[in-house]
Amino acid sequence: MAETGNELGSCIRRWRSRVAPSSVGLPANGPRRTSGLRREELAALAGVSVDYLHRLEQGRATNPSVEVLASLTRALQLTEEERDYLFRLARRAPPGPRQLAEMLTPGVCRLIGRLDDVAVGVFDAAWNLLTWNRTWAALMGDPSLLATWAYPAGPRSGKNDGHTRDFYMTSVSERRAAVVRHRPGQDARLQAVPRL
Q1: Which of 55, 89, 123 is the last residue of a domain?
Q2: Helix ranges, 60-186 (H)
Q3: Backbone angles phi, psi at 116, to 5 degrees
Q4: C-alpha dihedral sign at 101, 105, 108, 110
Q5: Measured distance CA(170)–CA(164) in Å, rounded
Q6: Are residues 55 and 120 in the same domain?
Q7: How far is CA 49 from the centre of its chain?
Q8: Which of these three, 54, 89, 124, is where a domain ends?
Q9: Tens digit of each residue's pLDDT (9 = 90 or more) over 13-64
Q10: Which of 14, 37, 56, 107 lies 20 to 30 A from 173 at CA?
Q11: Domain assignment of residue 82, yes or no
């Protein structure tokens, strides 16, 4: 078997080459040297630096975090089997049935990419932002430029317009429902649900 770091990099490059820019909402401007995503595009979609992605592809970085692997899974539009293979190549346990789903099917990713005139942000059950389109980034701020994106603050934050309060109340309600659905052995991300 090939050395794990090299196999990991080979798979990332191969998967990157098959993702059409239009399927993730990117314009296909002019001729492209690569069929699929450029390294810079994948890095932006996954929320990692171009340098780190380059080191992953070269096999010089062989221990990506679970969060990085989940981001790559979404950005590369991997199937569940491919996601599990990516995790195993990185010597990480694939997500189990009691963990929050972070998978978006390729069809959902294509749909989001085509909804340019509607702001779309996709969250998991704990209201972690998984992906978004350009209109959402223009309206809410581009999450790829931030270290972390947080949903609007709660009612006591001073930001109390009706839309913000409704959004906050909905997010708390949804997360509380997710806590109930995922017991026993709930995902750690659902442990701290804020109070209304």
Answers
A1: 89
A2: 66-75, 80-89, 106-114, 134-140, 162-181
A3: -70, -25
A4: positive
A5: 10
A6: no
A7: 14
A8: 89
A9: 999 999 988 777 777 666 777 778 989 999 988 888 999 999 999 989 888 9
A10: 107
A11: yes
Q: Tell me: do 127 and 158 sit in the same domain.
A: yes
The answer to whether residue 73 sits within a structural domain is yes
Is residue 86 a contact partner of residue 68, using CB atoms and an 8 Å limit?
no
Q: Which two tokens stand for residue 154?
A: 């709660």
Q: Which residue has the tokens 């649900």?
A: 193
Segment holding 17, helix H or strand E: helix 4-18
Neighbours of 183 (CB within 10 A): 10
Helix (H) or strand (E) holding 129: strand 129-132
User: From CA 192, how far away is CA 86, in angstroms rounded?
Assistant: 29
Residue 179 pLDDT class (50, 70, 90 cuts): low
Its domain, for residue 115, covers 106-190
For residue 134, count other CB atoms closer than 10 A to its CB: 16
Please report whether residue 177 resides in a domain. yes
Residue 23 lies in a domain: yes
**Cα-based angle 148, 28, 48 (whole degrees, multiple of 5):** 25
Name the token pair of 134. 């350009």
Q: Looking at the structure, do residues 80 and 28 belong to the same domain, yes or no?
A: yes
Contact (Cβ atoms closer than 8 angstroms) between residue 10 and residue 56: no
Count of structural domains within the chain: 2
